[in-house]
Amino acid sequence: MSRNVLVAYASKMGATAGIAEAIGADLREHGHDVDVLDVAQVHSIEPYAAVVLGSAIYIRRWRREAVQFLRNHVDALCTRQVWLFHSGPVGPDKDQVQEMPAAVRRLAHEIGATPAVTFAGRLERDTAKGFLARRLATGDLAGDSRDWTKIRAWADDISAAIQRSTWDRPADGTTPN
Ligand SMILES: Cc1cc2nc3c(=O)[nH]c(=O)nc-3n(C[C@H](O)[C@H](O)[C@H](O)COP(=O)(O)O)c2cc1C
């Protein structure tokens, strides 16, 4: 199996997509083959040895298509390295860790993935979609709180873990127990 990495995202207003692109760019700098794709564009994860999945959080939930992605690929994800993140908190609470929604927690457990990492999000008038988002984007929640240093550091850790698993892998390509 090749060591390709998929970074898939579910984003409504673009902030989570931007985080996924930054993770992808960092992994490429470390020499990985990376596809960064909207989850809706992913039909098979067979080509990938590792998967990073990120969703925006809305009213404490993940985007439906991200949860569906986990459900659709649960068996294949069990045999791959998987990392999860979600992007949400903005404004004064931007550093608050967000819990995984119950459905996501169950699926993550099934897959054997560690809990999702929380990254702060973005809520700005220019990119806000929908009445409520536009309204909120005029108050103290407004702004781009994404922490690129934290995001890159996390991607560095993923790269190191992928490298380690490559070295641990026997030369015949089988997966060690
Ligand atoms: C209506 C609405 C509800 C939101 N609910 C949450 C929430 O429950 N938890 C959270 O951390 N962020 C919440 N946010 C903030 C968004 O998750 C944040 O803006 C995120 O970066 C958007 O990602 P996207 O641009 O990829 O869609 C909410 C934003 C809006 C507009």
Automatic annotation (TrEMBL):
<dbReference type="InterPro" id="IPR026816">
    <property type="entry name" value="Flavodoxin_dom"/>
</dbReference>
<feature type="domain" description="Flavodoxin-like">
    <location>
        <begin position="5"/>
        <end position="159"/>
    </location>
</feature>
<dbReference type="InterPro" id="IPR052200">
    <property type="entry name" value="Protoporphyrinogen_IX_DH"/>
</dbReference>
<keyword id="KW-0560">Oxidoreductase</keyword>
<dbReference type="Pfam" id="PF12724">
    <property type="entry name" value="Flavodoxin_5"/>
</dbReference>
<dbReference type="InterPro" id="IPR029039">
    <property type="entry name" value="Flavoprotein-like_sf"/>
</dbReference>
<dbReference type="GO" id="GO:0016491">
    <property type="term" value="F:oxidoreductase activity"/>
</dbReference>
<dbReference type="InterPro" id="IPR008254">
    <property type="entry name" value="Flavodoxin/NO_synth"/>
</dbReference>
<protein>
    <submittedName>
        <fullName>Menaquinone-dependent protoporphyrinogen oxidase</fullName>
        <ecNumber>1.3.5.3</ecNumber>
    </submittedName>
</protein>
